[in-house]
Amino acid sequence: MSLSQAINNSVAGLRVTQAGLALVAGNVANANTPGYVSKTLNQVQIVNGEAGASVRTEGVNRQLDQYIQKQLWAETSGSSYATRISSILGELQSGYGTPGGNGTLETAFSNFTSALQALSTSSGTPTAQSSALSTAQSLALQLNATTQTIQSLRSSAEQDINNSVNAANAALKQIQDLNTQLQGMQSVDPSAAGLQDQRDLAISQLSQLMDVRVISDSGNSISIYTGSGIPLVGTQASQLSFTSQISLNANSLWNADPTKSGVGALTITFPSGAKEDVVAAKGITSGQIGADLNLRDNVLVQAQAQVDQMAATLASALSDSTTNGTAVSSPPQAGFDLDLTNVLPGNTVNITYTDKATNTQHQITIVRVDDPAALPLSNNATTNPNDRVVGINFTGGMASIVSKLSTALGNTNLQFSAQPGSVLRVLDNGSGAQTVNAGSVTTTASVLANGNASLPVFTDGVSLYTGAITSAGSQQTGFAGRITVNPALVTDPTKFNVYNTSPLTLPGDTTRSDYLFTQLTTGSFYVSPGTGLGSTTTPFKSTITNYMQQFLSLQGNASANAKQLKDGQDVVLSTLQQKFDSTSAVNIDTEMSNLIALQNTYAANAHVMAAAQSMMQTLMQIQL
Amino acid sequence: MAINNIGFGPSVLGQSVLNVKNQLTDLQTQLSSGKKSSTYAGMGPSEGFAVAARAQLQNISAFTDTITNVNTTIGVENTALQALVDGGQTVHDALVLNATTLNSSGQTNAQQIAAAQLGSMLGILNTQSGGRYVFSGSATDTPSVASMDDILNGTVTQAGLKQVISERQTADLGTGSMARLTLSAPNPTSVALTEDGSVFGLKLNSITSSLTGSTVVQPAGAPPVESIDLGAVNPNPGEDVTFTFNLPDGTTESIKLTATNTAPPPTGSFTIGANTNVTATNLTNALTTAIQNLSNTSLVAASAIAATNNFFSEPPQRVSGTPLATAMTLTNGAANTVAWYTGDAGPGSARGTAVARIDQSIIVKYGARANEQAIRSQLQSIAVLAAVQTSPANPNATAQISALMSRVTQNMPTQPGQQSFQDIQSDLANAQSTMKAATERQKQAQSMLQGVVDSTESITSDEVISRILALQTSLQASYQTTSMLSQLSLVKFLPVG
User: Fold this and answer.
1) What local confidence, expressed as pLDDT, does residue B11 receive?
2) Neighbour tally for B283: CB within 10 Å
3) What percent of chain A has pLDDT over 70?
């Protein structure tokens, strides 16, 4: 009977309207809940009888643009990467100080050169000497402080990775749990919608930490992979683990070999139990973890290499001198005698010869390397691009040196022999096929008054800086953190002038101070490509001042670029978010107008019910 | 499950407002600091130039300091040199008056002036500039010259100038004031003069004769011998013979003896005897007297000058052996003689003992040593005057003093081919003009480099202020709009209740 049908329909209408009202209330209440996606009611008509249709709710709809959501996740990781890099580079910038101000490398360096210059003018006065000493000390301290800044930033990156890994694991676990719960639920199930909200929130948290790819499976479940395709979570979650180091120093570097690595290892354990090294696999390239890894292993390592290079050049420029070999000839052979007495580990013997057949000149650099584990050396062990590098262990004495050289350089047809008094003789083979053009020995001065203008002003703690190479790496690594003014010079600053004790250098003799000044201001040196300047084949060669200018600009530009990138990323992200919100966020105005509509509908339904009721009553009162 | 904060949803408007606010803060910092930023990154892409420019500026300022210091030192040197020139002139002026009156201390007025000037010149040579002895070459921490007392009178272990002069005088005069010469007669009609082969006394230069019938033999042999043979015929009165000698200081003196019939002969003559044998004897006697006279007058003066030269030599030369009157050579006296110059005497030019770099590739040399030729030669002349004392009782006193003063008067002006004070001064003037040119260049470079730094790092306050104003306007507008938008919500317009 249609009348009762009408009442039933209006009751159904009231029920649906109430459900709608509850939804509006829920939307409004959750307007500011993170991850909450605005819901709408799914209502369908139910045809029953020949006229009219009832209504019922069919779950809820999440107002979601999945395409934008995925983009949002991708950009979130990009944005948090850019933010992290920019913030750390900004902090690094404060480590370099205010341009031109005190507490910057450039000021410390300028003060030192000025003091050396003053030392030449008012030579021999204790005031000038102590001023040279104190400016040298503050330069060393400045290098130490810069190293400390860089390394504490690396340590904080390390700590941050640890925290991020914990957060990521929590998110992965949550996603796995939600996946399990959602399996088998109808997607329009109101509780499923809430769980999906939570899962999306967890994903967006995860996407801040790393770059993720989200793939929706059938049955409400989703799988997440890293940007490079390492599976993170499906029905089962992988587990990230990080062996965090308490603090890092310049020598703790990442290495693919876990026994040699000095930094925390990031591994992922798959549900199957298999493990993979995420850093080696370049598994995470974006997000906060990606940024921290990049900072820890590349950006800040390069910044350290830059100051190390500066410290190394500074020390070597002042302490190293090159002595030419003595030409010898024993017809038909000719060559040079090279005195190896003062060659320390890291010092070099340089030989230039011409191959007559091709008429090309070759350079050979023989580096003293006493640690057999560090041998053989690569051709890039020296910054000179044109030389062939041979590392030789000197501990076995002259006979052993000669035999090692003959083995290593046999194909050059140069002939090596030992002469009395640690003298190495290098000769052509007499066939005229090649000529030895030059031979020289570069040594580091070990005593202050060595009769030579060079002076070991800076040392590596209490030992000399010679650039020695061992299996643990080059002495240059982290040298900026250890550089100090030669303790012997601190005790006796007169050695800034006195280079000879017999006859004693006169106080007006400016030979040494002038040499030191010239080395610092006009001496030109190769720079290791690890500093980001130049390459292995065409290394950057410049004065110390120019080098400092280059790397400070490089860092300045990097920081400015990172900031720009971050600003750009922020705009992209907030635009996307805006777009996402325009469909998914709770719009109070919409909800309010829905509310009015619902009120009206409710009133109308009630009215229909009242009318039907009254008609029914009328019908009942009919007196037949 | 992690607890999440309330999310108020980012909005582009909100972010822009925040952005503008941050910009405003940056601009305020710029305005108060006058700098674009406090980091290298914030200075913009040309910060590299500014870093380089600042390093160069620092170098220039160090060079400017150097130039100031060196200019001061050169000023001090010039003042000292001028004072030395003036002192020399004072002594020279006193000498020209040629007053030979000795006072009680055995010195003339000019000698006393010289003694006073010697004192002040030694003082001047020990001048310091910024704690450096400027006339000590590289030994800037050592006084340049010994004290006047040590130089003249010596110390306990080392001889002073006076002793050196006196020893040399004994050596030069030889036995019997014969100035190391021996007279002999190879045959009855001849007179021969022989040197003793030492470096002291008179040295034979030449012999000229207008005596009728005489034959001369010029100095020859080792040791040199010269002689005159009167032959068989007596000379005529009025004819003469001249013996010329070299003195130790390089001057020459002649003894001219005229034949006369007067007996006894007046000074400078010899009596013509009955035959040439007698005449030769007379000539020998006259020559002996004349040589002794020359020894006690000019030779004393010349010896003092030679001794002073020995004293001021590097190393000092002393008469070797005893007795002094028969000593043959000079010897290195560094051990037992006062070293008048105590600064650095190494090889190389005096100017090169102080070198300053006044530009990346320019150096100036401005060193000086008290033992440079010009200074030493003037000191020597004045020191000999100050050291020599002559007893007024000595009959030869006036002649000795006169000989000494005329020699010194002649020696004092710069000799051709030798270094003068003007030479030193012009070297220093060259250094100064080099520095002046460098300063000019550096000033230009400085303003250019400062421009680079300023344009990279400094702000124009006008520009910043106008940007602040613009931002302020836009920020106000944004705030206004935000406020208006926040009012626009349906919730406000729904009836309550």
Assistant:
1) 62
2) 30
3) 99
**Interface membership of A589 toward B (CB under 8 Å):** yes
Q: Is B321 left (phi over 0), alpha (psi -120 to 50) or beta?
A: left
Residue A384 has pLDDT above 90, yes or no: no
Q: For chain B, give the mean pLDDT.
A: 88
Average pLDDT estimate for A271-295: 91
Instruction: Give the model's pLDDT for residue B497.
Output: 54
pLDDT at B496 (0 to 100):
62
Strands across the sheet containing A360-368: A320-324, A434-444, A348-355, A360-368, A387-392
C-alpha A478/C-alpha A530 separation (Å) is 13
- According to the 3-state scheme, what is the secondary structure of chain B? CCCCCCCCCCCHHHHHHHHHHHHHHHHHHHHHHCECCCCCHHHCCCHHHHHHHHHHHHHHHHHHHHHHHHHHHHHHHHHHHHHHHHHHHHHHHHHHCCCCCCCCCCCCHHHHHHHHHHHHHHHHHCCEECCEECCECCCCCCCCECCHHHHHHCCCCCECHHHHHHHHHHHHHCHHHCCCEEEECCCCCEEEEEECCCCCCCEEEEEEECCCCCEEEEEECCCCEEEEECCCCCCCCCCEEEEEEECCCCCEEEEEEEEECCCCCCCCEEECCCCHHHHHHHHHHHHHHHHHHHHHHHHHHHHHHHHHHHHHCCCCEEEECCCHHHCCEEEECCCCECCCECCCCCCCCCHHHCEEEEECCEEEECCCECCCHHHHHHHHHHHHHHHCCCCCCCCCHHHHHHHHHHHHHHHCCCCCCCCCHHHHHHHHHHHHHHHHHHHHHHHHHHHHHHHHHHHHHECCHHHHHHHHHHHHHHHHHHHHHHHHHHHCCHHHHCCCC
ipTM of this complex: 0.72
**What residues does B336 pair with on adjacent strands?**
none
Contacts of A570 in chain B (CB under 8 A): 15
Query: Largest alpha-carbon pair distance within chain B?
Result: 175
Q: Which residue of B has its CA nearest to A28?
A: B491
Q: Which residues of A touch B140 (CB under 8 A)?
A: 123-124, 506-508
Average pLDDT over residues B13-34: 83
Cβ distance of A99 and B6 shorter than 8 Å:
no
Helix or strand (DSSP H, E) at A561 = helix A544-584
Asked if residue A5 has pLDDT above 90, the reply is no
Question: Model-level pTM?
Answer: 0.80
- pLDDT (tens digit, 9 = 90+) per residue, A414-461? 889 898 888 999 988 888 788 899 999 999 998 888 888 899 999 998
Across the range A606-612, mean pLDDT stands at 89
Q: What is the pLDDT of residue B479?
A: 82
Q: Mean pLDDT, to the nearest integer, of A389-409?
A: 89
Please say if the pLDDT value at position B262 is more than 90. Answer: no
Interface subset of A 530-559, CB within 8 angstroms of B: 545-546, 548-550, 552-553, 555-559
Query: Phi/psi of residue A216, each to 5°?
Result: -80, 130
B222-239 pLDDT per residue, tens = 889 999 998 888 999 999
| Mutation site for B-interface testing, chosen from A83, A89, A199, A506 by largest number of B Cβ within 10 Å | A506
Q: Does A25 touch chain B (CB under 8 A)?
A: no
Tokens (6 digits) for A133 = 């000493």
A549 to B48: CB separation less than 8 angstroms, yes or no: yes
Question: What pLDDT score was predicted for residue B2?
Answer: 44
For residue B12, the model assigns a pLDDT of 63
How far does the CA of residue A516 sit from the closest CA of chain B (Å)? 12
Please, which residues 458-517 of chain A have a Cβ atom closer than 8 Å to chain B?
A: 506-510, 514, 517
What is the average per-residue pLDDT within B413-432? Answer: 90
CB-nearest to B52 from A90, A546, A573 is A546
